[in-house]
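4.2 Preliminary Data

To establish feasibility before requesting continued support, the project team ran the inverse folding procedure on a target of 603 residues. The structure was first converted into the token representation described in Section 3, and no sequence information of any kind was made available to the design step. The complete token record follows.
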């Protein structure tokens, strides 16, 4: 688990540990001062039988036992108050430490997930990712770190108190340690397997809860139209119930022994008192030792309870530690952008450097024998594709559904790395090192434009803080995308109008145009447009593509065309079929050639 901490946190933990030691010493001192005090209360003349008290009494110039007792009582009070203040302070240090680790772990998870290659997202459920960042990191702080630190702090306290009891009466101390320590150990050993298993159940149920909510709201339109609310509730309910039961069980298993063991302790003290009384010995002689044990028990039992509870919670949350460890360390997602987060605990993950120097693109983009297989797929999705796209040209990737158009575009976008073959930009091979520089040339318009719940300007200059938005560039991009007039004339606050979550206040076509403006904001030299299959009607789609072609200027336009009618003006069409390049050429040539393309074009 140490691997989950940054070096700075490890140093900071030494301070927390020192506070735990201080807390243990003071708790023991509180118990230690009680002994002489009770002894003096029951027999004030005993001051003179004890060399230390006698020296103190004379050294401080006391002439009355009562005032000496008042002094001792006051010292006892101060020690108890200071000990409680230090305990509270230590708890505050521990809590603060745990939550600052939580904040850093969650930032590191977010930065780490984002820094992963696109391919990693294909196999990861986004609800699970969100849950790990927000909830499991919290469970790590609350259910692992805090209990672990409490176990440590109260373990130290318990050890010190037990040490003190040994000094007072070794035999009795041994009995107390064996009885209470043994009782807690026995309970823990009995239920540790159950804790591990319900901890695992909690984790799984939590993922299912998140998925059900995520999917229900992610497709709320379909849910409402199809009337499937019940289905999502049915999916959510059992998971929520398993989650709640696991949480309740773990809390119950953490608390229950306390009551049984407190009862046992009370029974033993009462039994001992009755035994002394019955055996005819005066209670007075046994009172100091008995009261030391009662006070020690008052401190020792909560310490043992906390120690036990810490172990129990740790066990319950073993799956959380494993998952976070797996994601942060074993899968190495702590690399790259998130490394700095471990050294600058207060900093937020750095945004990827999109302003990286652009890879020069003056001549051609070439794909040479490019193949690609998705992870865990049986068949390759692209097989030996070789195409050349000259700068400033307008090309289309087309083919039937599942032919490999999106995969090929993702390869060009640098999102997927070819399993075989090479991509060359002006003869320079694309590598993981220069990929970001290549991407700095590209503006991408996906089929589904995801709009954030912010202003139109914020959505065009996507992912930039308000103060960094270049309003001139926003308007220029909007004009090219033919959405400026609508924004300026129809929207109540122009570019400052809020678009609503996912752009619910805009039509599909308007969202698409904002997506195009977004791609144009950084003035890219290459635009990749994934033609929308549903958001726009044929005519609007063709107009957008034609307009993009007209305002292309010095840009290269690559369109993934689902409808052939929209790509009649392009210079070159690449026709894919089952991952292979089936045909290539200008639209008319391919149509006249009577290829499969022809059939598709006429269908
Ligand atoms: N994440 C994935 N894992 C495994 N196989 C995938 C994955 N994504 C796509 N594929 C497969 O790769 C092939 C090409 O898919 P791709 O999405 O590139 O086709 P497409 O031509 O863009 O289709 P469409 O026009 O329907 O969008 C398909 O057979 C598809 O099943």
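Position-by-position output of the design step:
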């Amino acid at each position: 688990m140490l691997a989950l901490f940054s070096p700075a946190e490890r140093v900071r933990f030494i301070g927390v540990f020192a506070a735990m030691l201080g807390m243990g010493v003071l708790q023991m001192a509180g118990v230690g001062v009680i002994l002489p005090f009770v002894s003096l209360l029951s027999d004030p003349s005993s001051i003179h039988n004890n060399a230390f008290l006698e020296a103190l009494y004379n050294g401080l110039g006391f002439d009355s036992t009562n005032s000496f007792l008042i002094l001792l009582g006051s010292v006892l009070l101060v020690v108890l108050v200071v000990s409680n203040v230090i305990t509270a302070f230590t708890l505050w240090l521990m809590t603060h430490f745990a939550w600052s680790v939580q904040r850093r772990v969650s930032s590191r998870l977010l930065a780490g997930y984002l820094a992963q290659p696109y391919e990693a997202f294909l196999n990861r459920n986004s609800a699970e990712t969100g849950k790990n960042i927000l909830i499991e990191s919290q469970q790590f702080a609350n259910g692992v770190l805090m209990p672990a630190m409490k176990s440590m702090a109260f373990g130290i306290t318990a050890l010190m108190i037990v040490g003190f009891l040994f000094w007072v009466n070794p035999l009795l101390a041994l009995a107390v340690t064996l009885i209470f320590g043994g009782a807690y150990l026995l309970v823990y050993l009995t239920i540790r397997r159950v804790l591990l298993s319900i901890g695992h159940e909690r984790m799984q149920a939590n993922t299912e809860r998140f998925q059900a909510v995520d999917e229900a709201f992610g497709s709320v339109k379909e849910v409402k139209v199809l009337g499937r609310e019940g289905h999502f509730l049915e999916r959510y309910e059992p998971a929520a119930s398993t989650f709640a039961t696991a949480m309740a069980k773990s809390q119950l298993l953490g608390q229950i022994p306390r009551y049984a063991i407190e009862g046992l302790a009370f029974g033993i003290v009462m039994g001992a008192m009755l035994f002394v009384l019955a055996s005819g010995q005066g209670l007075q002689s046994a009172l100091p030792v008995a009261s030391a044990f009662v006070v020690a028990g008052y401190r020792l039992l909560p310490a043992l309870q906390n120690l036990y509870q810490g172990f129990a919670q740790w066990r319950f949350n073993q799956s959380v530690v494993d998952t976070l460890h797996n994601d942060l360390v074993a899968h190495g997602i702590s690399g790259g952008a998130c490394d700095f987060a471990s050294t600058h605990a207060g900093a937020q993950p750095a945004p990827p450097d999109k302003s990286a120097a652009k890879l020069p693109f003056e001549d051609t983009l070439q794909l040479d024998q490019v193949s690609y297989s998705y992870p865990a797929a049986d068949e390759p999705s692209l097989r030996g594709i070789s195409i050349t796209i000259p700068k400033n040209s307008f090309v289309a990737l087309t083919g039937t559904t599942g032919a490999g158009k999106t995969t090929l575009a993702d390869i060009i976008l640098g999102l997927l790395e070819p399993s075989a073959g090479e991509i060359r930009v002006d003869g320079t091979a694309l590598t993981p090192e220069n990929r970001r520089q290549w991407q700095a040339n590209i503006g991408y318009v996906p089929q589904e434009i995801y709009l954030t719940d912010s202003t139109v300007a914020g959505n065009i200059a996507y992912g930039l803080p308000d103060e960094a938005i270049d309003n001139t560039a926003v308007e220029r991009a909007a004009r090219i995308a033919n959405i400026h007039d609508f924004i300026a004339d129809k929207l109540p606050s122009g570019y400052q109008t809020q678009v609503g979550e996912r752009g619910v206040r805009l039509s599909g076509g308007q969202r698409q145009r904002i997506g195009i403006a977004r791609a144009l904001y950084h003035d890219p030299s290459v635009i990749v447009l994934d033609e929308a299959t549903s958001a726009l009607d044929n005519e609007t789609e063709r107009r957008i593509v034609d307009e993009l072609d007209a305002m292309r200027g010095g840009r290269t336009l690559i369109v993934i065309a689902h409808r052939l009618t929209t790509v009649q003006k392009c210079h070159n069409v690449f026709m894919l079929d089952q991952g292979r390049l089936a045909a290539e050429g200008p639209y008319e040539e391919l149509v006249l050639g009577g290829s499969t393309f022809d059939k598709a074009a006429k269908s």
